[in-house]
Predict the 3D structure of the following.
Amino acid sequence: MQVLFGVLGPVVAWDGAEDEVALKGPRHRAVLARLIIARRRVVPVSRLVEDLWTDPPSDAVGAVRTFVAALRRALEPERSPRAPARLLVTEGPGYALRAEQCAVDAWRFEQAVAAAAKLSPTESSARLAQALGWWRGPAYAEFADQPWVRAERSRLVDLRLHAVERRAEALLALGLAARAAADLDALVAQHPWREDAWRLLALALYRTGRQGDALAVLRRARALLAEQLGVDPSPGLRTLEADILRHAAHLDPQPGGAAGRVWAQTAAAYDRAVPAGAQARLESTVGLLRNLAVTGGPGLLEARRHRVAAIAAAEELGDAELTARLIGAYDVPAIWTRVDDPEQAAQVVAAAERALSTLPPGGHETARARLLATIAVESRGTRAARGPQAARQAEEIARRLDDPSTLAFALNAVFMQTFHQAGLAPRRNEIGAELVTLSARHGLVTFEVLGHLMRLQARSALADFTAADHHARAADRLAGRHELPLVGLFTQWYAALRNAATGPATAVEVEAAYRNAAARLEGSGMPGLEHGLLPLALLSMRVERALPAQADERTDWGPYEPWARPLVLLAQDRHRDAAAELRKVPDPPRDLLFEALWCLTAQAAIAVGDRETMERASIDLAPAAAELAGAGSGLLTLGPVSKHLSDLAAALRRPR
């Protein structure tokens, strides 16, 4: 099996089982690093001696040969002593590492950056984000002070910075200026001499409405260049400053220039025409918050915060119908079954219940259905009976009303409450199918995307990745057309899941894909999704491949710690502690990861011989025997549930 090499960080090698190869001491790693730098060319032994020692010992050549012999044993452990080496070969006066192009992360990085230049902004951004995720630290980290590595390190650093700049350029082309600004701000702080980074940062800030910050950035760049290097800014930076000062139309994302002007003029007219205390302002605010929420990141966080404030303001007015309309109008599609802010969700549910109780009897059915749908959506992930009840009532009313948008919201509520047992992917697939048809017919774009994501999850659970691929592509197309950046986060995670579940990908490659997907979660505004998800995905991958858990005490498992900890303790050979922790593990929450968490618990129970837990796991997992564990999340998998049920059955048949 192919050995993989990593130099984008400390020098490391992984064997065919995706475990790190023991490379012994620093000089062994130095030999390997030096051969990787040579890119399959022969490095004479004399050169290796010069590079490894300032003052070589008398037996330096013999020592190099010893290092090479040890590396060969580590990299090709199954090779017989008399067989010629295939990977680290002897040729002429020295040695060469005949690694494939795809086997070294630095070489793959070069290819990815070159390929991204020929792709669309959407594809380029994704490809570069994936490639940048391969960096684990400074290139050739432990050899930074060695003369033989300096040129290669410098080249790789420059290539990484170029990749960051090109990704920022792609994000700007996609209208994601805030995300580009965050990346560029960190870049110029660490590498202040890159004029293109300053230019892009100023442009990104301008496009997010921060003209003053954009000009301040350009002034800072000018001062640094003049004081530290004694040079003037390039014509490009000077021209950009002048263009920002005069609000040049070409600086706006196209066709956003006209759109930006229309927005500013309309907002100003609204501000002049509508009195400050008018109820219309509150209702208009909710429409803005709904649009703000689907932008993700700071927009989603701000939308949630201002939503609670808007509800409180409506209740202060004492108008029950206005409050009901305002709460129900925030029909932002929800796909994840764990709320991002439980406290805020509880406040919204309480306000919706109050509004529901104060609605006059008779009529107001649309408001009633939307309040019920809100209660069901915001109650997701809890065991309260009110959530499923509210979802059913919302759906019944919406179907009677023949109101497409209210029915779409109600179907979202029903979906969120369809986790009362394992094995319900077929039912969720039906809900998604109806939602796609309904939304496409009536132009409800965000709910059409939601329906495709529901079906992506459900078809993944049913191991129908051809259909899941179709829904991923459909969701991405709609997201690109209608500026819904959060959608790509889910489809990138799905791609990592699909790779883990179906492809010939190694554990190292799967882990890299998951880490790249997780990088997009940072700052997404969805802590309920982000917290603990990456370590859970990596643990699930290792359990599915019968590899031991890899974690230490610093791993932040988030809400998944009770289900992960027994397996981590088992990997540390702490069976007694694992058994004790397993006895504390609660039943998993009824959500998209219900089957996955039960499978983790089942494997720990089998390892420690906890029959009671094995029996409970068997009962709860049985309805999902035809599904892939965890794949219904669209994010991760532990393989077929049937395999885990078979393991449980075999363990339970053993004598006590």
Remarks:
- Residues 175-273 form a domain with the Serine Threonine Protein Phosphatase 5, Tetratricopeptide repeat fold (CATH 1.25.40.10).
- Strands lie at 4-6, 12-14, 43-44, 88-91, 94-97.
- The first strand starts at residue 4 and ends at 6.
- The chain has four domains: 4-105, 175-273, 275-488, 519-653.
